[in-house]
Amino acid sequence: MTKRRLANRTLVMSGGSRGIGLAILRTAAREGANVAFVAKTDTPHPRLEGTVRTAVAEIEAEGGGRALGIVGDVRNEADIERLVSAAVGEFGGVDICVNNASVLNLSATEDLPLSRFDLMQNVNIRGTFALTRACLPHLRRSDSGHVLSLSPPLNLSQRWLGAHPAYTLSKYGMSIVTLGIAAEAANQSLSVNCLWPKTTVATAAVVNILGGQEAAARSRSPQVMADAALEILSTPAGKVTGQTLIDEDVLRETGVGDFTGYGGGTEPDLDIFVDS
């Protein structure tokens, strides 16, 4: 039997009840990892597929590692502490921290209420900082310590700076927090990186915000990000760190040349912050 690439490791994630986060959790569990995640959806939502409970069931159906789902909010320090404590208590430590939870709002400056601005910054930036901070003492004790934030390269073109300043700030903030922690831990055996999709990914955000089912049809499946994340998280700790990585580039380096199996047609739409 082929050795599972994340066997005996524990992955902690913010979000994860659907979309890219769930795809990563399922893939990690299939590869032997135990996973723990915190997400807000406790009961079914009319526009959002999946809950914490259904995610746990899907993850454990992979037949690899076990899953622990916590109902909570990444903005709440007590919920983060409860998640990390539960992961350590249940599985013995933390080897991987994935900052997945994120809020998307593409409103122009004058159209964005301050309450929505605060929500984006608090989930995207503060949540990334808080979860990574809580995991760091355990990651340093691991021989496979990884932090992976689902955030973009810092593309400072006028196009992206001006398209939706508040959202851009929140996502670039995630990347800067991650790159800063990578620099802070540069002399340690710890990998701290960002990962972003080259193309749009068929998630609820694409359907509900970016263009409905037509946009989803021009998008790759979440599995492309999950496969790229697996490649990163299974590398030796400290080998690759301080990078903003693109999923397609990661997979091409492993020999993948045909991406049609991920859907989206022959020319899927490029994602936000990615130039052709």
Account of the 3D structure:
- With 276 residues, this protein is α/β, with parallel strands linked by helices.
- It has one domain (10-199, 226-248): Rossmann fold (3-Layer(aba) Sandwich), CATH 3.40.50.
- The chain has helices spanning 19-30, 52-60, 77-91, 114-141, 158-163, 165-184, 204-217, 223-233, 247-253, and strands at residues 10-14, 34-39, 67-71, 96-99, 146-149, 191-196, 244-246.
- It has a 7-stranded parallel sheet with strand order 3-2-1-4-5-6-7, sandwiched between helices.
- The chain is globular and about 45 Å long.
Q: Can you give me a brief rundown of this structure?
A:
The chain has 276 residues and is an alpha/beta fold.
The fraction of residues in strands falls at: 5-15%
Strand order of the largest sheet: 3-2-1-4-5-6-7
| Rg value | 17 Å
The assigned CATH architecture is: 3-Layer(aba) Sandwich
State the separation between the terminal residues, measured CA to CA: 41 Å
CATH topology (level 3) name: Rossmann fold
What would CATH call the class?
A: Alpha Beta
pLDDT < 50 runs, ≥5 residues: none
Oligomer: single chain
CATH superfamily descriptor: NAD(P)-binding Rossmann-like Domain
Coarse shape: globular
Number of helices: 9
Helix content: 40-55%
**Succession of helices and strands:** EHEHEHEHEHHEHHEH
For the biggest sheet, the summary is: 7 strands, parallel
**Global mean pLDDT:** 95
